[in-house]
Amino acid sequence: MLMLLTAQEILSPGQVCRHCVLANDQGEPRLHNGKVRCGRSLLSPVLASEPLPQRCPMGFRVVELPNPTA
Question: Which residues fall within 8 angstroms of residue 42, CB to CB, at 6 or more apart?
């Protein structure tokens, strides 16, 4: 589950990306191989299985949270 983080909130991409000119036609982030295409990597993951933390052009930290139903 892709989420965007601020200092105080966890937001869904639908709350943020629909206002971004880099979003797709449905207002969702453009993904390529599980990464946000418009994001840039912040750090290297500690484990190879961890996704790379990213930051979107609007300044939000982008993270992939585990699906609670999985």
Answer: 52, 53, 54, 55, 61
